[in-house]
TrEMBL record:
Matching InterPro entries: HAD-like_sf (IPR036412), HAD-SF_hydro_IA (IPR006439), HAD_sf (IPR023214)
PANTHER family: HALOACID DEHALOGENASE-LIKE HYDROLASE (HAD) SUPERFAMILY PROTEIN, PTHR46649
Name under which the protein is recorded: Haloacid dehalogenase superfamily, subfamily IA, variant 3 with third motif having DD or ED/haloacid dehalogenase superfamily, subfamily IA, variant 1 with third motif having Dx(3-4)D or Dx(3-4)E
Secretion signal, residue range per the UniProt entry: none
One Pfam family here: Hydrolase
Domain of life according to the entry: Bacteria
Membrane-crossing residue ranges in chain numbering: none
């Protein structure tokens, strides 16, 4: 079983402390829609939101392969999204790359526990430029995940087959016996080129998506309890 990270088993979400970062130059708080749009731009898996100069476009195209390029690209995105100061943009970017700032979906833990109890090997495959392992380790879930293939470590991004194979080979699983669960048909669906199955989930706020992982697994024959 393979899972994407962002928008699939974890999500970056606003909390009360975001108010410090999202205050306009006139001292007024950003409205709810503006905050939501900034979050979307920080976490959307493939969509490009702006026109970059040559250096910025190179950074955007390769952001998930190199932490420095990732920082360059997302600071430009934050500036273009109306974040008024460099300091605010830096703080927001710090949240993006802090795995402990990400919120797990309600069924992430139960699904991982169920799969472990059934002896199903689990891997995480993510286009990302920072280490997500602490998000699992701090919750004791690292024992439930047998492989983590991150694009900036593997040197290739989804939908290329090599990143899926990196996880599957570590797990010792034939691609034809694997199910990839993710929120991007383009990126995560690349696993189907190897003969794996694919289940799409919607990257909704965690409060609005209590059991999509359970439903995805049940649709592929795994009777996860609700």
């Amino acid at each position: 079983m393979l899972f994407d990270f962002s928008g699939t088993i974890f999500r970056l979400e606003e909390d009360e402390s975001w108010g410090e970062e999202l205050v306009g130059a006139d001292g007024a708080d950003f409205d709810v829609e503006a905050k939501a749009e900034i979050l979307r731009r920080m976490t959307a898996p493939v969509e490009q939101f702006m026109t970059f100069d040559a250096a910025g476009q190179h950074a955007w195209d390769n952001r998930d392969l190199d932490p420095a390029l990732h920082r360059h690209a997302y600071l430009e995105v934050l500036r273009s999204s109306g974040v008024p100061t460099e300091e605010q943009a830096e703080r927001l970017y710090g949240r993006l790359i802090d795995p402990l700032a990400w919120t797990p979906y309600p069924d992430t833990g139960p699904v991982l526990e169920f799969l472990a109890a059934q002896g199903v090997p689990v891997g995480v495959v993510s286009n990302i430029a920072f280490d997500v392992r602490p998000a699992f380790r701090t919750r004791g879930w690292d024992r439930l995940v047998g492989a983590v293939a991150l694009s900036f470590e593997v040197g290739v991004i989804k939908p290329e087959p090599e990143i899926f194979l990196a996880a599957l080979n570590e797990l010792g699983v034939d691609p034809a016996r694997a199910l990839m669960v993710g929120d991007s048909a383009h990126a995560d669906g690349g696993a189907t080129a190897l003969g794996s199955r694919f289940a799409l989930v919607d990257p909704l706020p965690t409060a609005d998506r209590p059991d999509a992982l359970v439903d995805a697994l049940r649709a592929h024959g795994l009777a996860v309890p609700r």
